[in-house]
Amino acid sequence: MIKTLVASILSVAVLFTAAAADNELSDKEKADGWKLIFNGKDTSGWTNRLSDKLTNWEVKDGALTRTAKGTDVVYTAEQFENFELSIDWKTEGNSGVFIRMSDQKDWLNTGMEIQVLPKAGVGKHDAGSLYDLIAPPAEAKVNEGGWNNFHIVCNGPIISAKMNGVETFKIDLNDEKWKTPQGKFNKAYATLPRKGFIMLQEHGNNVAYKNIKVKVLDAK
Fold first, then answer.
1. 60 contacts 43 by C-beta, under 8 angstroms
2. Of 2.40.37.10, 2.60.120.560, 2.60.40.10, 3.40.1190.20, which CATH number belongs to 23-216?
3. For the whole model, what pTM was predicted?
């Protein structure tokens, strides 16, 4: 009985040791090649779009938080091509996570947006969608008022996203569809540079992000 109890306690201890705190990497994540691009303490590496400073985003309670009217925040310390991105978000309104954004002036047409909204739906502008192009499935749910997670993968021509563990879209840029402009955009996704910035959209609403981590992948 005592041995069983001790074993149970040790198992729980190992579980909690393996889990990382906010804005930290677990030992397994470190071994797998993940790295933090937001440290939860300051805005190192992040600036406003087309700026060398950050004016309307701050770190509050360990989260990168939109605090005033202004513009988007961009991770300018590095650009990424083939990678996995894990990011937690909480929002009261509209925002978005942009990937492979190659031109900060023409951010709308040169970056792909995964939509951030406080509620889920099945439209092309709902949370988890590839904005204006692919709607998420009905089983993709948002934790309204709480934290949510995106797991986004860019590997060569394959782009996919999961919201809270449910896949919301997966595309192959080699498909004929993506060789012409789609939706509201004036450039074909298949022709865009595959290396670019990660950007978080400022859309006039309260939004916060944390646990922003990237794992660089070899080209597929």
1. no
2. 2.60.120.560
3. 0.91
